[in-house]
Amino acid sequence: MTEISNKTGIDRNDVLAIVEGFMGTVKNAMENGENVYLRGFGSFIVKKRAEKLGRNILAKTSVVIPAHYIPAFKPAKEFVDSVKEKVTVVEHA
Question: For the domain that residue 66 is a member of, what is the CATH number?
Protein backbone atom coordinates (compact mmCIF):
# COMPACT_ATOMS: atom_id res chain seq x y z
CA MET A 1 0.00 0.00 0.00
CA THR A 2 2.90 2.32 0.73
CA GLU A 3 4.22 2.08 -2.82
CA ILE A 4 0.82 2.98 -4.29
CA SER A 5 0.47 5.82 -1.80
CA ASN A 6 3.90 7.19 -2.71
CA LYS A 7 3.29 6.94 -6.46
CA THR A 8 -0.18 8.52 -6.40
CA GLY A 9 0.05 10.93 -3.49
CA ILE A 10 -3.10 9.38 -2.00
CA ASP A 11 -3.08 8.78 1.75
CA ARG A 12 -2.04 5.22 2.67
CA ASN A 13 -5.27 4.59 4.61
CA ASP A 14 -7.34 5.73 1.62
CA VAL A 15 -5.35 3.40 -0.66
CA LEU A 16 -5.95 0.54 1.77
CA ALA A 17 -9.71 1.24 1.80
CA ILE A 18 -9.83 1.38 -2.02
CA VAL A 19 -7.85 -1.84 -2.52
CA GLU A 20 -9.88 -3.71 0.12
CA GLY A 21 -13.08 -2.39 -1.47
CA PHE A 22 -11.94 -3.61 -4.89
CA MET A 23 -11.05 -7.06 -3.55
CA GLY A 24 -14.42 -7.28 -1.77
CA THR A 25 -16.23 -6.34 -4.99
CA VAL A 26 -14.35 -9.02 -6.96
CA LYS A 27 -15.06 -11.61 -4.26
CA ASN A 28 -18.78 -10.73 -4.13
CA ALA A 29 -19.08 -10.89 -7.92
CA MET A 30 -17.42 -14.30 -8.03
CA GLU A 31 -19.59 -15.60 -5.18
CA ASN A 32 -22.55 -14.69 -7.41
CA GLY A 33 -21.05 -16.67 -10.32
CA GLU A 34 -19.84 -13.59 -12.21
CA ASN A 35 -16.43 -13.23 -13.86
CA VAL A 36 -14.43 -10.01 -13.49
CA TYR A 37 -12.35 -8.79 -16.45
CA LEU A 38 -9.52 -6.24 -16.15
CA ARG A 39 -8.29 -5.28 -19.61
CA GLY A 40 -4.54 -5.76 -19.98
CA PHE A 41 -4.24 -7.45 -16.57
CA GLY A 42 -6.39 -10.57 -16.56
CA SER A 43 -9.65 -12.18 -15.56
CA PHE A 44 -10.92 -13.48 -12.25
CA ILE A 45 -13.08 -16.39 -13.36
CA VAL A 46 -15.33 -18.96 -11.73
CA LYS A 47 -14.38 -22.48 -12.86
CA LYS A 48 -16.49 -25.59 -12.48
CA ARG A 49 -14.72 -28.70 -11.24
CA ALA A 50 -16.33 -31.97 -12.28
CA GLU A 51 -17.35 -34.66 -9.83
CA LYS A 52 -14.52 -37.09 -9.15
CA LEU A 53 -13.53 -40.04 -7.05
CA GLY A 54 -11.06 -39.29 -4.26
CA ARG A 55 -9.12 -41.89 -2.32
CA ASN A 56 -7.94 -41.97 1.27
CA ILE A 57 -4.84 -44.14 0.99
CA LEU A 58 -4.44 -44.60 4.75
CA ALA A 59 -8.02 -45.70 5.38
CA LYS A 60 -8.21 -47.51 2.01
CA THR A 61 -11.56 -45.90 1.23
CA SER A 62 -12.98 -43.99 -1.71
CA VAL A 63 -15.10 -40.87 -1.51
CA VAL A 64 -17.07 -39.08 -4.22
CA ILE A 65 -16.07 -35.43 -4.38
CA PRO A 66 -19.09 -33.58 -5.79
CA ALA A 67 -18.87 -31.08 -8.62
CA HIS A 68 -18.05 -27.62 -7.30
CA TYR A 69 -16.90 -24.16 -8.34
CA ILE A 70 -13.54 -22.57 -7.60
CA PRO A 71 -12.11 -19.07 -8.16
CA ALA A 72 -9.28 -18.81 -10.69
CA PHE A 73 -7.16 -16.08 -12.25
CA LYS A 74 -6.25 -16.04 -15.93
CA PRO A 75 -3.62 -13.40 -16.76
CA ALA A 76 -3.97 -11.36 -19.96
CA LYS A 77 -1.55 -12.15 -22.79
CA GLU A 78 0.15 -8.75 -22.39
CA PHE A 79 0.71 -9.50 -18.68
CA VAL A 80 2.17 -12.95 -19.38
CA ASP A 81 4.43 -11.60 -22.12
CA SER A 82 5.67 -8.79 -19.87
CA VAL A 83 6.59 -11.20 -17.07
CA LYS A 84 8.32 -13.58 -19.51
CA GLU A 85 10.33 -10.69 -20.94
CA LYS A 86 11.32 -8.97 -17.69
CA VAL A 87 11.82 -11.69 -15.08
CA THR A 88 15.34 -13.08 -15.19
CA VAL A 89 15.43 -15.08 -11.94
CA VAL A 90 17.46 -18.28 -12.18
CA GLU A 91 15.95 -21.25 -10.34
CA HIS A 92 18.21 -23.44 -8.24
CA ALA A 93 17.71 -27.19 -8.36
Answer: 4.10.520.10
pTM above 0.90, yes or no: no
Among 44, 49, 39, residue whose Cα is nearest residue 70 = 49
CA 83, CA 39: separation in Å to the nearest integer?
A: 16
Q: Could you list the residue range(s) of the whole structural domain that residue 53 is in?
A: 41-93
Q: Which residues of the chain register pLDDT less than 70? A: 90, 92-93
Both 62 and 77 in one domain: the answer is yes
Residue 61's contacts (CB-CB under 8 Å, 6 or more residues apart) are 55
Collapsing DSSP states into helix, strand and coil, what is residue 9?
Answer: coil
